[in-house]
Structures are given as structure tokens and as C-alpha cells.
Amino acid sequence: MGSVTDHPDVPPAGANGPRLAHIAAQAQVSEATVSRVLNGRAGVARGTRQRVLAALDLLGGERPVRLRRASAGLVGLIVPELTNPIFPAFAQLIEQALAGHGYTPVLCTQLPGGATEDELVEQLEARGVTGIIFLSGLHSDSTTDPARYTRLTDRAVPYVLINGYHEGVAAPFVSPDDRAASRMAVRHLAELGHRTIGLAVGPARYVPSRRKAEGFVAALKEEFGLRRGQAELLVRHTLFGVEGGHAAAVSLLDAGCTAVVCGSDLMALGVVRAARQRGLDVPARISVVGFDDSQLIAFTDPPLTTVRQPVRAMASAAVDALIEEIRARADGERPPDRHTEFVFQPELVVRGSTARRQGSPGPGYVPSGEPSSQLPGASGSGLR
User: Fold this and answer.
1) What CA–CA distance (Å, rounded) separates 236 from 287?
2) Backbone angles phi, psi at 13, to 5 degrees
3) Are strands 347-349 and 305-308 parallel, antiparallel or unpaired?
4) Is the distance from CB of 176 to CB of 310 less than 8 angstroms?
């Protein structure tokens, strides 16, 4: 059992870092592979090399000097905020993917009263960033001027936009299928016997909110034959977050809804809170479906049924699209077609916040806590 050196006969010591065996177990590779990586030898796939280095970092080891390589460049990542756990999840995976390509991520967060997206872009450009990734930025707001992105294109700054789409912006977009997310949530609730289902979602000016509302209205027509006007009466556009979900729930409960589909997990927690304030048990009296499946949502009370967006796949696609354009420009080639939207299918995860409507015929339902591939529409690998 060797230490993290070229000499396996050197006895390991806690002060000198973790043993090869510990790193190998953490990375799920052989000790020989760990040795090759830590000694900078060839013959190891890039993904495997990243796993070994990640294991070393996790176990508190110090990377050998020979492995400290120069950065390929800086890439800016602009996120709206970090209080919603889905945004840190995206940021971490994007940063990991960028590091795998040798780029150093620069995280920029918009805070109330702080720097605006445009100001952050100016600061990133002043630092000579190689590219920029926007997560749920102004591109998702249909009322904003898309010229800010056109100017980036004119200045030959590669960029990718996650969660939102604008016809006037010639750039790669990465999105979940928000319409499908609403449809699979409604279908799940309809199978549980619910007939009056509401939607709590963010402001209509945001593309993801509008798409979720469109999918919801279409699903009510498919399941119950409701006309568009009738279905729209069950949609509540409000602010994102717990307070917005609470406000929407008050109105939807007054309208007689026995189930609510939400535009985010935080909004769903607001709906649960509003229901309990009325003495209504979740899920016995009110079923609630969230969206995102952020990291701790399975441990809420009750564990939240939600529509999971494939954050890892979306983060990887965004970084790959950015790297493709960066390399094309570096090689003097024409960048790939930029006006493309990569759409990823979400996945329904059934837990304890949904149940058969009281008085509804049919078999009972047992929440699994895992993606329910048996449910219609729960397929594929899809923010607010």
C-alpha cells in the first residue's frame, strides 16, 4: 500500500496526505491508475484523471507540483442568486466540467442592489475571459432587450445561455422541456384521481414560466377536455420562491384545487406551508408537485414529489457548446451554428407529497422516492 509518491515503499503518514488505496477507493479505480495520474504519466482517460484528482482533493491531499498546469483561460459564469439550491448545483457541475477542459471558472452572482448582469459582463471582459455562460439570466426575460447579447457576438466573445430562449439571440441555448414537465406532473395527478389541479409558477414574462403554463394548459385539455380559457383560470403567476408559492396556493385553494403543480421546489414548499396553515394535510387533502429536484428536497416533510431537471447533462452540454466555439475561433474556423436550442427531457420523481384524491376510486399509491419510469411521460434525462 503506497503513499502519494513515486516510491511505494515510503510509509504513508497522515501529514503527508491520503494513501493510494484510499484515493483509489474514493475514485473507484486501481491503485496503479492513481499512481499514473499522480506521477503525470500518460495512458489515463481524461475523465478518469479528473476522478482521481477529485478524490485527492476530497480526501485532503495536496496535488504534486508537476500536476499544476497553467489555466487555458478564464470563463465567466453568471448566476442570478445562490439561495435557490438548484443554482449552486448548476454552478458546481459547470465549474467541474470547465476544469476538466483546463479552464478556470469565475463565478459571478447577481445580488439585490449589487452589480447587474451587464456590469458583470463588462467586468469579465475587462479581465479577458475566454467565454461566458449565463444561467437564468436576462435572456430568459422576454421583455428585455436582446441587443446586449448581439454586442457580445460582435465582439467575438463566445457565450452560452442556460434556461431561457430568445429568437433574436444567435447563440447556443440549453433548456429543460418545461412544457413536458407540466404535462407529466398533470398526468401523474390525474392518474391519482385529481380533477381540479392548479399551477403556481413565476412571472409570465419569463420564458420557462410561460412554457410551463403552456404545457399545463395543454395537459388539462388532454386529460379533462378543458378549453384554454378554462384551464388558464387555474394558473397563478407569482414571484419565484417560497413566498410566491404560498401566495399562489391561497388563491388556488380558494378555487377548490386538490392538487398544485409548481414552477420550482421552493414554490412547492410555499404551497405546503399554505395548506398546513389551513389545517390541510399534505398529501391526504392536497397533493403538491415541485420542479427541479434540488439536493435536499427528498428530505422535506413530506418528501417532495417533483419533476427533476437533468442538471448534470445540461451543464455538460453548455460547457461542450462553449468549448466547441472557443476552439473553432482559436483555429480560425467559422464557429458552429449558434442559433441552436438543446432541449433536455425532465423526469418525474414520485415521493410523499402526492397521493390519491380522497374519495377517488382506484388502487392506492406507494411513493418510491425514485424516478418512476412506469408513469407516462417520465422519461429522459431539463429551472424555473
Assistant:
1) 17
2) -140, 145
3) antiparallel
4) yes
Q: What pTM was computed for the model?
A: 0.80
Locate all alpha helices (DSSP H) within 107-254, ordered by sequence: 117-126, 147-154, 178-191, 207-224, 228-232, 242-254
C-alpha to C-alpha distance for 206 and 134, rounded to whole angstroms: 15
* Residue 114 CB neighbour total at 10 angstroms: 11
**181, 307 Cβ separation under 8 angstroms:** yes
Residue type for 353, please?
A: S
For 16-30, give one letter per residue: b (16+ CB within 10 A) or e: ebbbbebbbebbebe
Here the cell at position 6 is 513515486
Task: List CB contacts of 323: < 8 A, sequence separation 6 or more.
Answer: 101, 103
Q: What is the pLDDT of residues 2-60, one digit of tens each?
A: 344 443 433 333 445 688 888 899 989 998 898 888 887 878 887 888 788 888 888 88
C-alpha 83/C-alpha 53 separation (Å) is 29
Query: pLDDT, tens digit, for every residue of 189-234?
Result: 999 999 999 999 999 999 999 999 999 999 999 999 999 999 999 9
Could you list the beta-strand ranges (E) of 257-363. 259-262, 287-292, 305-308, 340-344, 347-349
Give the Cβ contact number of residue 220 at 10 Å: 26
Q: What does the alpha-carbon distance between residue 27 and residue 49 come to, in Å, rounded to a whole number?
A: 9
How far apart are the C-alpha atoms of 338 and 358, rounded to whole Å? 50
